[in-house]
Amino acid sequence: MRRNRRGGGSGLEFGGSGEDSFVAVVVTKLTGALLFILLLTMVIMALLPKAIDSAARPQDGGPAEVARRPLKILTPESLPEAIAGRPYTVALAADGGQGPLHWSLDGALPEGLSFDPDSGLVKGTPSKGTPQPVDLAVRVSDGEKIDAGSLRLVVYQSDAPLTTPAWWKPGIPPVPWRAWLDQGVGFLIVWLVHLVGMSTLANFERQAEAGGVAIEGGEGSLSLAPRRFAVYRLLVRLSTMSATFALAAWLWTSRPH
């Protein structure tokens, strides 16, 4: 609060900026708008049940009961085709009526399929195909009215074996391994592996000699390194020879006579 001396007079003046006054005005207007919306909502909620009652009440001279749509089966006569060995599900549909529907199906379903009269579901896994379409008679009732119709179901027998599709199918053509082995590619691969193993052992041996690595510890242990690597080389040679003889024996025994 401060004293105002402008205009030759004096008086008390409450301090405050123009921005604070603007905020106060905005808050006041928003509060009024929210109160108006709340009041309007309460009025609508109070009048809504009366409007519904007046709409549902029959007019003067009108029928006492609202007309209902007739009960009718919507499922087409030809059901979707099934494939033997694969799961199958189809739901029968109807329109109109009042209350829960109850279905009935006359006729022998293909083996593996079953029918639920409460839900109208035909489901299961057919075990074999049908030589000709299966004719079925269907009825639906809501407790007061009944509608009837006919259905036709075909089960196909798959010629190809049923397999689960793989999520990854590489586009690599098949490799003629037997033809390659007959041409000596197997022996080439075995000897390439042998050369790689011998070269790796030679590199390890040179590193051990250059770094002075002691294999067993103590003096004179470096003299054991050549012997140890000689044993490794012997094992690689024996493995290569065994693989070579095994491959040759397999090619000889499996060739057509």
UniProtKB/TrEMBL annotation:
Coiled-coil features, chain-numbered ranges: none
InterPro entries listed in its UniProt record: Cadherin-like_sf, Ig-like_fold
Domain of life the protein comes from: Bacteria
Protein name per its UniProtKB record: Dystroglycan-type cadherin-like domain-containing protein
Stretches that traverse the bilayer: 22-48
Pfam families: He_PIG (PF05345)
Cellular component GO terms, alphabetical: membrane
UniProt keyword list: Membrane, Transmembrane, Transmembrane helix
GO terms, molecular function: calcium ion binding
Keyword Cytoplasm in record: no
The keyword Hydrolase belongs to this UniProt entry's keyword annotation: no
Cited Gene3D superfamilies: Immunoglobulins
